[in-house]
Amino acid sequence: xxxxTRLNNHPLVVNSDLIKFVEQAPDTVITLVNxxxxxxxxxxxxxxxxxxxxxxxxxxxxTALPDSCPALSPLITPHAHSDAERTTNVNPNAKSNGQPxxxx
Length: 104
Prior knowledge:
With 104 residues, the protein is α+β, with helices and mostly antiparallel strands. It has one domain. Helix content is 33%, strand content 22%. The protein contains three helices and five strands; from the N terminus they run βββββααα. A hairpin with a 5-residue loop joins β1 and β2 (11-14). The chain starts with a strand and ends in a 17-residue tail after the last helix.
């Protein structure tokens, strides 16, 4: 969520995931994925900067998550494979002929 300002100086919080595009000519108009349009005081570049800053903060929170929530760490950290797993390509849909998948 990013905080912006309407033309009447009232603050507004926008879900940045719903922004379809931002236009600046001369006012900044934000078009949402549902077709709604919002006119704000901030420039298009400022809106972009705020979206990037928000997403960066979310991603930093995800990278910090394994310390606070170890149950989710397998979803976030790369899985270490054994040497056998890395060298053997197993295709569960392949017909079994006694050979690992990928070998003839």
